[in-house]
């Protein structure tokens, strides 16, 4: 995960676009692990089945950085560049959404992308999410779009 977080192209759309070093990545992973205990959900490693290689992560977290959407649970993902464009993020995010609704009984899941991150917005629409607002991330000053999927919408669109 440290290599993924150290890639400026991967991190371009994450918060202020800064890369993260190994210590910062380790701290992030520890925080994600504690969410499993406190929230009952968190992030999953995305692994390539045929090789066992870690491609990145997907999963559920609380988007504390954007208080105006709270209470909410966000589905997110981050993959290394060599894994882009293969449908992995969509497949993994769909599994996380399914987990959130079917295993954790969530009523609503959001996803947040910086304006201009068209690839992530395409994934959100493939998940059945609808754009509900455009706003500014107060931690980075960057414009973001918030997409949403309710449990009722999920039930009618789930395949």
UniProtKB/TrEMBL annotation:
<feature type="domain" description="N-acetyltransferase">
    <location>
        <begin position="1"/>
        <end position="154"/>
    </location>
</feature>
<dbReference type="InterPro" id="IPR016181">
    <property type="entry name" value="Acyl_CoA_acyltransferase"/>
</dbReference>
<protein>
    <submittedName>
        <fullName>GNAT family N-acetyltransferase</fullName>
    </submittedName>
</protein>
<dbReference type="Pfam" id="PF13302">
    <property type="entry name" value="Acetyltransf_3"/>
</dbReference>
<dbReference type="InterPro" id="IPR051531">
    <property type="entry name" value="N-acetyltransferase"/>
</dbReference>
<dbReference type="InterPro" id="IPR000182">
    <property type="entry name" value="GNAT_dom"/>
</dbReference>
């Amino acid at each position: 995960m440290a290599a993924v977080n150290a890639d400026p192209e991967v991190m371009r759309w994450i918060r202020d676009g800064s890369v993260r070093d190994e210590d910062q990545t380790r701290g992030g992973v520890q925080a994600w692990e504690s969410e499993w205990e406190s929230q009952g959900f968190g992030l999953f490693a995305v692994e390539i089945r045929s090789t066992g290689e870690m491609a990145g992560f997907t999963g559920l977290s609380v988007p504390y950085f954007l208080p105006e959407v709270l209470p909410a649970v966000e589905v997110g993902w981050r993959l290394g560049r060599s894994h882009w464009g293969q449908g992995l993020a969509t497949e993994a995010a769909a599994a996380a959404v399914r987990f959130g609704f079917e295993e954790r009984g969530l009523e609503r899941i959001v996803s947040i992308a910086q304006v201009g991150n068209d690839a992530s917005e395409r994934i959100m629409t493939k998940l059945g999410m609808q754009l509900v607002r455009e706003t500014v991330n107060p931690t980075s000053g960057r414009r973001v779009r918030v997409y949403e999927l309710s449990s009722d919408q999920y039930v009618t669109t789930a395949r």
